[in-house]
Amino acid sequence: MAAKTSKIFVNFARFCTARVLAFNCRRACSSYGQSSQSTVDSEEVFKFSELCNEFWNINGPFQALHTMNRIRVPLIRDALLQNIEGSRFVSKPLNEKNILDIGCGGGILCEPIARLGANVVGIDASEEAISVAQHHAKHDPEICGRLEYRCMTAEDLVEQTGGGFDAVIASEVIEHVSDQEFFVETCAKLTKPGGTLMFTTINRTIQSYLLAILAAEYVLNVVERGTHDWNKFVPDDELASLVIHNGFRIHTIQGLCYNPFTRVWSKFDDTSVNYALVAQKLDENS
Questions:
Q1: Which of 60, 175, 196, 263 suits a disulfide with 167, CB 3.0-4.6 Å?
Q2: What is the dihedral angle through the alpha carbons of 63, 91, 276, 11, rounded to the nearest 10 degrees?
Q3: Whole-Å CA distances, 25 to 53, 138, 229, 232
Q4: pLDDT tens, 189-209?
């Protein structure tokens, strides 16, 4: 029993490591808060320069993010198509939908969404991440015409475009921002009325503290101590409140479970560790 429990902790810690690596990639150039809070750390930039080639190694440190696509891609697809009969069975169900992926990294989530027919914009504050994403997309002519990457923050994009996306995705980002309320407000501005907003993140619970902090950082020492800030984990009810405050109706809050033995994700009734929140922006006259 002890050996089985240890194996669960080890595999969860590996997932935590992937999350930390993804965060460090973003943190290298900027934080996803207000521009006055942005940071540039040359040491982190150097670390990322060595790591960026791992984005598309499906058995590497980002393996958990690759397998998470099996859950988050259908979630965003079904939310956008909820009122369109039979549309999910066509080859390009998201045809002509304009979708934004905030903190896109190397494009792990952008590419499968583009393959569903959507026009996708991926933004990231790391020039190296954007370079990797652009290079990888060039190898697939099916999506390269529908996929655009920009090195910028969400706040920059609001100033440039004012928003208007059919869907805005912030997957594994909000728990790392300097101002979560401002970040949700920014995501809301980028979403058009009737559009969809999706977050995936980690809850602030005893369970997440035991797994992501104690097990990963202090018991197994797989992740450097102090990597996670449990106080920045976002309870699902608090995130729902922020989203509703910014003019959205909650579509679903879905627990996510990472199986340490099969290394795949599945939907789960329990939201105490990982979860996804999907919401629809109300029309001004609603």
A1: 196
A2: -20
A3: 11, 21, 17, 18
A4: 999 999 999 999 999 999 988
